[in-house]
Amino acid sequence: MKDVISALTGGIAVLLVATAIGVAQNAMRDQPMKLIQRVPAKSRNATTLPGAATPGAAGGATDTNRTGSPSTTTATTVPGQHPDSLDAAAVKRMSDSGTVMILDARAPDAFAKGHIPGAINIPYDQLPNYLESLQSTVSLDDEVVAYCWGPDCDFSDQLATEMKLMGYTHVRVFHNGWEAWTRAGYPVKTGGGE
Amino acid sequence: MMLPFVKNRVFTLLCRVILAGVFIFASWHKAMHPELFAISVRSYQILPVSLSNLFALGVSWGEMLAGVMLLAGVLIRPAAGALMLLLGVFIAAIVTVLVKGLVIDCGCFGPGGHSSLVSPWMLIRNVLLLAAAWVVIRYNDGSFSLWPGDHRHGSATS
Description:
The structure holds two protein chains of two kinds. Chain A has two domains: 1-36; 43-183, Oxidized Rhodanese, domain 1. Chain A contains seven helices and four strands; from the N terminus they run H-H-H-E-H-E-H-E-H-E-H. Chain A has helices at residues 2-27, 43-47, 87-97, 108-113, 127-137, 155-166, 177-183, and strands at residues 101-104, 120-121, 143-147, 170-174. Chain A has a four-stranded parallel beta sheet with strand order 2-1-3-4, with helices on both faces. The longest helix of chain A has 26 residues, at 2-27. Chain B is mainly α. Chain B has one domain (7-139). Chain B is built from five helices and no strands. Chain B has helices at 9-32, 34-43, 49-72, 76-100, 120-139. In chain B, 47% of the residues are buried. Residues 154-158 of chain B have low confidence and may be disordered.
């Protein structure tokens, strides 16, 4: 046991040296990463679309979870938790006007089964692999709306937070997402994704 | 009960080489693209966002340095100790993600097609690697090493 503890103590020293090497290597890069990442304003408070997530304005909702996958349970209505709001209409107007880039944060197979017309698939759970596509398609000053399955799926929030860290300035979240869009009977497009 | 082959010199050397290979391979993409690995770190939703970049640098270069030290045979036990610490952190993170029910890319081997979703299999893999690090710490005899440091003379059998 003694030798394991001594090895772990030595291991801490190795990790400290490695961190110093990493910091030095980062400083020598063309575009060094910030060592202490500035935390953006909470995306939910700062980016909710007008009329979205009104407490108490509950309506029927497909149950979703934090994983970004639809739950296999039957639809449930929880007062105040799954609000049906006007944000689907707002997103529809913005989509029709062509003034926003709409990002679908769900997995590619979900995107292929149906998405908001014109949306681009940037699955949050595979974001590093989609970063190049995101940066080549969306400019830093573009108006962006991210959506996921519904209010309980936090991939759109997470995607918005990451994009703010990257320097995107106009990122908003359509919290009621796919379930509100389809419930409103708006057009959907299939295909795409990988 | 201790399995007899655990003390075998060849087995200990095999553990060392496997650990070194896995971690050098795992660290390469992360060290070259720390900003992408930092995104993976944040997706676990465990660390404060403000610390994610520094953590990403520390982990990726920690894996790289410890892996190279193990392969070259330089301060073998501290290097294995560093990997044991990292594996402990990874195991805790995977358990947290599985308990929370998050479906995220593990970021284990960095971006670029080697990654996969966090799963119980990763837990098993990391526990096996942790056991390998323990074997190296306990039974490494310093053979095939440039500068093994504080190793156990004669504790391994051939």
